[in-house]
């Protein structure tokens, strides 16, 4: 939904080139709200409004625009103005944005950036997309350890406007090796002892990541230790950047969405659902749907093998979907439990024995419940069938099958994600579709075997 | 995995009552690491080690223990010592902990807490578990608006040790009504202008939540506006607390896990997978498995209705599982896409027309792909069957069915979560199980109808 509250006024001010009112407008409200009120404008109108804010504010508002609008503005509006804005953005946002801008436009913008920003941009772009290096910003607060608390605060007051957070202040030596960290809170609460050295105040046992570490490791550490930001170092333990909590939150949300989509057999989308093209969407779903279809078609050939039995006991066919879906649902539940437990960090591959025992027990309980219902249902539906009734063990076929199918579904559903994890594959990517396929085939084989043993 | 690196040394120091070494140990390392090294100790050993740290450090280490260990210590160790620790914990952590402690123990501990903390605890416990009030802490940095920057920093340096974050400092009037916010960064970078009033510096257009708002609203706002913390007010806009980024991160992770479990038909677990009792696990899964089973048993009665047709064309039975699973998978994909898009905020119920059109198109594309494979497979498997071959339209039954089943699965799978959302129900809770049930029945009805139209 686009917020249209101020749209007519904004358009009028733009048409009249009413600089005074536009300036009033952009300074009166919170930048986040402003960005919302400007959603109804097209990219060049929005850009024109922005020109009435000073650079710092222009940047704040711009950062609240949607990613698509940001890209559109960068690609279509005057290069010099865009470059001025880009030069002032936080380094990590700049890299993320230019990653999605057409390469020709980037080539045109690069020479317009100040040399420092240009070098940094090229360096940050060299990190793998999923690495800590690609998530980090290089604008962090750094001080040297032999400063006093008073001098540190003065140094910080000069730097404060240019850094992304002053919650942590990193203490480095002359070669930028990371030595420790002090919090702004510690500095402020030591104001009474202004001659204390930063080196005596700092915490030296640090939680940090290497720039080449995966983003999963970043989210794990930040969540585990409740950090506001995590320092990023290179192989020589030199401080190269920090990753702040907001980027971690975005990464966690992205991980969760990717996992959910992968569990449903969709290759993760790069854009929002509504913004993904139909052919891309069909492709991302089609791959898995086809793989699943191949697995399902094995059920057809399996059933074909048992054709003579099925013709003899035609009433068995009626329960095939029910049995397969019970096994599939049970397996799906187990797989999801194991995958979410591994993502949240409460379970590792080494626990597999415990998992098997648990799933065996739970599977037997669940199987017994369904067997009770299934036994009643199958008896009611087939009691009028003379081909069924003449068999002594006929009422037991469905209950026995259900217990076995539900239990084996639970065990298979829990073991497959663990197996994929052990092999170094993403459990979320592979397991649910596989579980579905395997439990379907298992279900039919178990059903037919039980039938042949109980019926004659 | 329990870290046992220092376990023998720790046990030895405890046995020898070596206070000096224990004190060395607890002060040498980062509290988070210490908590890990103490995982192998039992609750009373861990508690004894903690006694060698001063209160502030004891509290830091304690907060890194697992939730279960914290509860065990509170319930089993000496009440006076526990009360001293509890009195000093952040208010939100205290409430969360006591929520899981046996009621008798809480009753014994309450009188041991200072009157202020006791009152606050009782007040916080009154908020609904999913509300902003239950997530917040009451230890925030507050200053009055007529203070100068210099006085504000002095006031802050006194408060800094007792508040959860000084990233934002909230500006209030005499009755605690929230007037605005300044960041520590703003204060520090205004050190050059010490006589500036806080009221002139503060931002007044605030993003805030009411204490009774749902936690979903909290995560949405913090994510949308990249906040470090969000202020919580009561109905008179009085500042009653703040929610910090670490609690928001926990809430987002919890939401994602709950959603994934609900989408697989599991009532969300309260504990980690390995810590949930088997009967609880069976119960949380059994409810949905039974509901799904009832839906699946409808397929049995539906198939029963078509029995005469199926006896005439026995080869049709072989493809039932394949057709049902294709429809189910397609529906499952659509439901997951819609649910994750709604959770991430990129889709609302009003977009339903767009969604239907998109799913119709994608469904047709996917259906066509599967129909190609399905057509070949069904022809190969049935070409030797005289009952099939004598029918003119026989090779078209499976392809036509697949196109219809996959398309209707996609449309139903996308509309059901939107419908549940519209009705005020949680889309993640209801849709995938429903989608599975509905698409199974739809699949059979479509298959049988197509067969009757094409075969004679």
UniProtKB/TrEMBL annotation, chains A, B:
NCBIfam families: mgtE. It is a multi-pass membrane protein. SMART domains: CBS (SM00116), MgtE_N (SM00924). Belongs to the SLC41A transporter family. Residues 136-198, 202-260 form the CBS domain. It comes from Anatilimnocola aggregata. InterPro entries: CBS_dom (IPR000644), CBS_dom_sf (IPR046342), Mg_transptr_MgtE_intracell_dom (IPR006668), MgtE_N_sf (IPR038076), MgtE_transporter (IPR006669), SLC41_membr_dom (IPR006667), SLC41_membr_dom_sf (IPR036739). One of its GO terms (cellular component) is plasma membrane. This is Magnesium transporter MgtE. SUPFAM superfamilies: CBS-domain pair, MgtE membrane domain-like, MgtE N-terminal domain-like. The chain crosses the membrane at residues 361-384, 396-420, 432-455. It is found in: Cell membrane; Membrane. Keywords: CBS domain, Cell membrane, Magnesium, Membrane, Metal-binding, Transmembrane, Transmembrane helix, Transport.
């Amino acid at each position: 939904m686009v917020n249209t509250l101020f749209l007519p006024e904004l358009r009028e001010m733009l048409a009249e080139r009413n600089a005074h009112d536009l300036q009033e407008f952009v300074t009166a409200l919170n930048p986040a709200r402003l960005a919302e009120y400007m959603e109804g404008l097209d990219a060049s109108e929005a850009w024109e409004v922005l020109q009435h804010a000073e650079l710092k504010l222009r940047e704040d508002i711009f950062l609240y625009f949607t990613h698509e609008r940001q890209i559109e503005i960068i690609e279509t509006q005057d290069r010099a103005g865009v470059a001025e804005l880009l030069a002032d953005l936080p380094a990590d946002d700049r890299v993320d944005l230019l990653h999605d801008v057409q390469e020709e436009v980037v080539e045109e913008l690069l020479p317009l950036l100040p040399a420092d920003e240009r070098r940094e941009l090229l360096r940050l772009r060299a990190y793998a997309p999923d690495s800590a290096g690609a998530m980090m910003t290089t604008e962090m607060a750094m001080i040297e350890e032999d400063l006093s608390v008073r001098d540190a605060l003065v140094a910080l007051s000069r730097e404060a406007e240019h850094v992304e957070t002053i919650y942590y202040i990193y203490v480095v030596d002359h070669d930028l090796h990371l030595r420790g960290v002090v919090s702004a809170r510690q500095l402020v609460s030591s104001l009474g002892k202004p001659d204390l050295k930063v080196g005596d105040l700092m915490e030296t046992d640090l939680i940090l990541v290497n720039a080449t570490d995966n983003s999963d490791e970043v989210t794990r550490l930040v969540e585990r230790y409740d950090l506001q930001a995590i320092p990023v170092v290179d192989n020589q333990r030199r401080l190269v950047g920090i990753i702040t909590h907001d980027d971690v939150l975005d990464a966690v949300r992205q991980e969760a969405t990717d996992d959910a989509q992968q569990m449903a057999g969709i290759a993760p989308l790069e854009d929002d659902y509504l913004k993904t093209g139909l052919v891309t969407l069909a492709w991302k779903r089609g791959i898995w749907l086809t793989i699943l279809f191949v697995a399902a078609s094995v059920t057809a050939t399996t059933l074909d093998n048992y054709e003579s039995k099925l013709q003899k006991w035609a009433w068995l066919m009626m329960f095939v979907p029910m049995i397969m879906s019970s096994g599939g649902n049970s397996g799906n539940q187990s797989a999801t439990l194991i995958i979410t437990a591994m993502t949240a960090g409460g379970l590792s591959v080494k626990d597999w024995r415990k998992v098997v025992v648990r799933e065996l027990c739970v599977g037997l309980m669940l199987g017994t419940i369904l067997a009770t219902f299934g036994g009643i249902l199958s008896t009611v539906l087939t009691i009028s069938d003379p081909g069924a009734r003449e068999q002594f063990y006929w009422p037991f076929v469905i209950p026995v099958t259900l217990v076995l199918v539900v239990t084996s579904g639970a065990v298979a559903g829990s073991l497959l994600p663990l197996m994929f994890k052990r092999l170094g594959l993403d459990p979320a990517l592979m397991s649910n579709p596989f579980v579905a396929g395997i439990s379907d085939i298992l279900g039919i084989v178990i059903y037919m075997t039980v039938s042949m043993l109980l019926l004659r």
